[in-house]
Amino acid sequence: MTIPAGKWLYCWKPANFGTPTEVANYCAGLGLTAITMKVANGYLLYDGLDPYIEALRAKGIAVGGYHYLYCGVNFTTGGSDYVLTGITPEREAEVSLQAIDRYDLTHFSIDAEREFKVWNQNERAARYMTAFKPYAGVPVCLSTYRFPSYHPEFAWKGFMTTAGGVDFYLPQVYWAPPSATRGPVNELRQSWSEYQTLAGKLGVPMKAEIFVPTGRCYIGDGYPSPGPTQAEMIDFLTEADQVKRFQAASFWALDFIKLHTGGWARGDAIRAYNWTTQPEPPEPPEPEPDSWWVQVVTSGDSVYLRPQPDSSSGMPYSGKTYNGLKLPVVGSVKNSKGETWLKVSPLYVAEWLTKPTTPP
Prior knowledge:
The protein is an alpha/beta fold and 360 residues long. It folds into two domains: 6-272, Glycosidases (TIM Barrel), CATH 3.20.20; 292-349, no CATH class. It contains ten helices and 16 strands. The protein has helices at 20-30, 50-58, 89-103, 121-132, 156-161, 184-202, 230-243, 254-259, 263-272, 346-349; strands at 6-11, 32-41, 44-45, 62-68, 73-75, 82-84, 108-111, 140-143, 168-169, 214-216, 248-252, 292-299, 302-306, 315-317, 329-334, 340-344. The strands form three sheets. Strands 1, 2, 3, 4, 7, 8, 9, 10 and 11 form a nine-stranded mixed beta sheet that branches. It has a five-stranded antiparallel beta sheet with strand order 14-13-12-16-15. Strand 7 (108-111), helix 4 and strand 8 form a beta-alpha-beta unit. Helix 1 runs parallel beside helix 2. The protein is globular, with a radius of gyration of 28 Å. The two termini are 38 Å apart.
């Protein structure tokens, strides 16, 4: 799995910010490597995003998408009342796949929130993942609550273990005003610790390369005006990048850089921060051996080359005896059973012997 390293942003409705050119130019000026745009809501696929996506890609910015899921549950008010809609997880999984194909997305974010704290939540999440994840074809992440311990009823197991689980995480670390225990650094540390603990309980991986925290770039949800400061934004990025060495960090959201008081200053803080952490280079492939060890078994006028001492199948070299064997042999050895092994050039056996073996 490969995801872009560096600074990301979510985008709810790009028209909230401006034209495709304005969006692309501004995001490029921030030094973003990726943006995650809302592409679907429930069973509805969003249309008309192509000009924005094309403009962003022309600036070298990877474009992923996010989908807010309901999977049959709809809250009717701001309280605890909800209704069952009959929209199945499989139907919303189909929309997710359509979005990936429609916009050729580079990554996909499952936005799952309070709808997955009620009514068969793990079963519904598992059904969605079964219908979606094996066919996604791009890295898939879960975007939800920052502190799992505060939301034990959420469908963590359904999303994190079914069909291989999600590939990475974008927890919503929308911090409260700074205090002795709150604020960008304290809450990021707590979020990372809690996700590690949860992953351990569920038996799934959790490492810095797959944890992409989403910080606060807006006012609301417990943080009143004038909202987070530039210093808070820089502290969040510094902790994610230079301390925790996460591969990337994101913010919610591009829209509110323009729509909320102090948004432009928060955008300036994102622009000013130079991301340092880069993904670890892949391990180099093992070098090809300069020879292969194969067992020689004679049977009448045929010689059989076998890749393992106990292998019952072999490749006949018909019409030759051992002494007359015309193979590019570069050495030989006998094992404890007295069986002869030859060291043979790999060019000769490459078509049928796929792995080198250690001589006995």
